[in-house]
Amino acid sequence: MTENERGGPSRRALIGWGGAGLALGAAAAGGGVALSDGQLGLASASPSEEAGGVAFHGVHQAGIATPVQDRLHFAAFDVKTEDRAEFVQLLKDWTAAARLMTAGKPVGEGAYGGLAEAPPDDTGEALGLSPSRLTLTLGFGPSLFERFGLADRRPAALADLPKFPGDNLDRSRTGGDLCVQACADDPQVAVHAIRNLARVGFGKVAVRWSQLGFGKTSSTTPDAQTPRNLMGFKDGTRNIAGTETARLDKHVWVGASDGDAKSAWMTGGSYLVARRIRMNIETWDRTSLQEQEDVFGRDKGEGAPVGKAKEHDAPFLKAMKPDAHVRLAHPDSNNGITILRRGYSFTDGTDGLGRLDAGLFFLAYQRDVREGFIPLQRRLSAQDALNEYIQHVGSAVFAVPPGVRDSADWWGRALFSKEA
Q1: CA separation (Å) from 412 to 2, 333, 405?
Q2: Could you tell me if 392 and 373 are in contact, meaning their C-beta atoms sit under 8 angstroms apart?
Q3: How many CB atoms lie within 10 A of CB 166?
């Protein structure tokens, strides 16, 4: 394929123009030349369901209502560039790379076979692996709207989270200008995706914090077995299913009538709250079974609500303790508040005192943070019996824009469209 057919000069051609130094500089900058849509060969970036691919293009971003995968690599980024055009190009480059990785393809010219003097375009650890249902979901944090003249385009629904009772937030695990949620059934595929995006963004963004997760704790698939959290209880029994179009439209997707003109770019998107919740595992493990069940308001074996036989039996909330988690979190106790959960368990070694650093990485999508997570968490943080055994230690909120519609579209285009 010639340079013109590829839509731009290859890295090999750059050697002829200015020597290896020019090619190395372009690669280190993660520039648009090496990762332009034309060069990446979009025709080859269509996923195969048989090979475990999930479609990248759509009205909504994949990774929200998509059936929940088993593994997570979540990363929050700080933006380092002050150049608006450079940042827009990064979003285009990330979109092009995401198209390929979600289809099980290497980024750019791949992990080998290129210039010996330059780093490969792809880090290579996912070579030979299937897409493993990889989804990549991007969000914009409140702090991003302090840059690039975006202040008047920040949606009111992207509200700063207040300090809740019991919060003990670690600043190094809180906030971020951007986030990328990588979910897959193979942990190496998820890690590879974040690693490649970080490499492409070198010099323009830097990882602020990240979290690995395993063992999904909520399901968006109604016929799947409800997963258990690290406390041994089933979680997300009444979670919104990916097939429940009406509930998704009501509680998750931003509508055209939401907000005002400045937030119209979010139509079809959603708002994400991410919370790192550490569990006091050792204390919980010494708690009696009866108290554990009272704390949740469900039995540990079947997951049935108090006084019921089956997990999905309608709960009789007044039969539970007044401070039972299910009773306090249930939509009937919160004027119908409903969020879509995609949480994961985590274990990150020990805390130096012989206690496991483990818990729940809580991910929740909603149509408006002010009407979803904030009032719900205020109620839980003030009364929930579970608070004795958990502590929120990391926190972030993001506006997740609508999906990438086609090969000409890119992440965040509607936000930057006036001047991009």
Answers
A1: 31, 36, 11
A2: no
A3: 14
* 229-234-238 Cα angle (round to 5): 120
Distance of CA 159 to the CA centre of its chain: 18
Please tell me whether the overall predicted TM-score, pTM, comes out greater than 0.85 for this model.
Answer: yes
d(CA 194, CA 192): 6
What percentage of the chain exceeds 70 in pLDDT?
86
So what's the pLDDT on residue 236? 74
Contacts (Cβ under 8 Å, ≥6 apart) of 336: none
Burial code (b: 16+ CB inside 10 Å, e: under 16) for 199-222 equals: bbbeebbebbbbbbbebbbbbbee
The DSSP bridge partners found for residue 401 are none
The residues, any chain, with a CB within 8 Å of residue 402's CB and separated by 6 or more, are 59, 60, 61, 254, 266, 267, 268, 269, 414
What was the pLDDT predicted at 7? 37
Give me the residues of the chain with pLDDT under 50, please. Answer: 1-44, 48, 419-420
Torsion over CA: 190, 134, 29, 210 (sign) = negative
**DSSP code string of 78-126:** EE----HHHHHHHHHHHHHHHHHHHTTPPSTT-SSSS-TTS--SS--TT
Rounded Cα–Cα distance for residues 174 and 171 (Å): 5
**Radius of gyration of the chain from its Cα atoms, rounded to whole angstroms:** 22
User: What are the CA-CA distances from residue 51 to residues 131, 134, 191 (Å)?
Assistant: 7, 11, 19
DSSP 288: -
pLDDT at residue number 146: 97
Cα–Cα separations (whole angstroms), residue 380 to 38, 152, 248, 333, 334: 50, 33, 23, 11, 10
